[in-house]
Each structure stands twice: as structure tokens, then as C-alpha cells.
Design goal:
This protein is elongated. It is mainly alpha-helical and about 180 residues long. Among the domains are: about 90 residues; about 35 residues, no CATH class. It contains five helices and no strands. Helix 2 runs antiparallel to helix 3.
Length: about 180
């Protein structure tokens, strides 16, 4: 029995040492964490403040930007459609241009899917531009559709078809608001 008692004492000493060591590590980690200090203000503002409502000259400037982008997108979509049609006509009438290898078929399908996706994306952008031109005609251009606040000029310069102010758009991207 004497042997069993010393064996249990030895185990309890080992457990005690491990427990003490674990407590020290937790305390050391707690001390290693930096304490939160005073908040430092950035040297430049993070959010751009909206300026006064747009003047007639500014609205005309944005209208010209929208019309130029619209023309560019129409040209791109028409070019992609013409290219797809040309490839379709070539492959339908001429058996020598038919791909023989399975990899060639996959490449052709990939290129066709990519072209269709690009055309769809460009058509959606055209729709947004048309809506922005409608808002110019209605006199609501530059006003957030969700909040009614002015959209900053910097945002409109970057994305003249913007429907929402940057604050609301961030909420939409985080899933806290709906379009």
C-alpha cells in the first residue's frame, strides 16, 4: 500500500505542476495583450461629404459622360454580336472549320459562354445608364434612391450611373439593406 500512496502523490504533484504552469501561461498572455489606447484620428477624412446639389453645368457634364459611355458600350455589344454571328456562320456551312478534338470543342464553348456573359453584363450596364439619363430628365439625378440624400460628386465622377449614395451601397454590400 505504501507504494500505491507514493504513486498517487507523484501523479498529483505532476498534475499540480501542470496546472500551475497553465495558470502562468494564461496570465502571461493576458499581460502580453496591449491595452487599448486612445483612438487616433486619420489625417484625411474617410467619407467624402456630399457637396451642394448639382448645378445645370454639372448635370450636363454627367449627361455627356453617360452618353459617351453608352456609345462605347453599344459599340462593344454590336462588335461582340457581329463576331459571334460571323463565327456561327463560318462553322455552320464549312465542315473543315469544325473542331475535331474534344479540347477544341471545349475551347469554342468557353469562348461562346464568355462572349454571352460579357454581352449580358454590358447590356445591364446600358440599362443602368438609360435609367440615369431618365433621372436627369426627371430632375432626380444625383439623389440616392433609397435615402434621398445627395450622391457625392466624386462617386458620380467615378460611376455616373450610380443610384445610391456610398453609405447605402455599403449597407447593400454587407447585406444590411436591399436594392
Amino acid at each position: 500500500m505504501a507504494g500505491k500512496g507514493t504513486k498517487n502523490n507523484a501523479r498529483s504533484k505532476v498534475k499540480t505542476k501542470v496546472r500551475v504552469k497553465a495558470k502562468v501561461d494564461v496570465k502571461a498572455k493576458a499581460k502580453a495583450r496591449p491595452k487599448p489606447g486612445p483612438k487616433v484620428q486619420p489625417s484625411h477624412p474617410i467619407r467624402s461629404r456630399p457637396g451642394p446639389l448639382l448645378t445645370g453645368d454639372r448635370v450636363e457634364h454627367f449627361k455627356q459622360l453617360l452618353l459617351a459611355k453608352r456609345l462605347e458600350l453599344l459599340h462593344n455589344v454590336n462588335h461582340m454580336e457581329d463576331e459571334a454571328l460571323r463565327k456561327s456562320l463560318q462553322s455552320s456551312g464549312d465542315l473543315s472549320s469544325m473542331p475535331i478534338h474534344m479540347a477544341d470543342l471545349g475551347s469554342d464553348n468557353y469562348e461562346q459562354d464568355l462572349a454571352v456573359g460579357l454581352m449580358d453584363s454590358e447590356r445591364q450596364m446600358l440599362h443602368e445608364i438609360d435609367r440615369a439619363l431618365d433621372r436627369i430628365d426627371e430632375g432626380t439625378y444625383g439623389i440616392c434612391e433609397a435615402t434621398g440624400k445627395p450622391i457625392s460628386r466624386a462617386r458620380l465622377e467615378a460611376m455616373p450611373w450610380a443610384r445610391y449614395c456610398i453609405e447605402y451601397e455599403r449597407l447593400v454590400e454587407r447585406g444590411r439593406a436591399e436594392r
